[in-house]
Amino acid sequence: MREERATAVETVDLEKVHGEGSTAVRALKGVSLEFPAGEFAAIMGPSGSGKSTLLHLLGALDQPSSGSIAVGGVELSGLSDKKLTLLRRERMGFVFQFFNLIPTLSAEENALLPVLISGEKTGKYAGKLDELLDLVGLTERRRHRPDELSGGEQQRVAIARALIRSPDIVLADEPTGNLDTKTGAGVLELLKASAARYGQTVVMVTHDPRAAATADRVVFLSDGRVVDEVRTPDADGIFERIKSLESAD
Question: Which domain holds residue 170?
Answer without folding.
Answer: 38-56+90-248
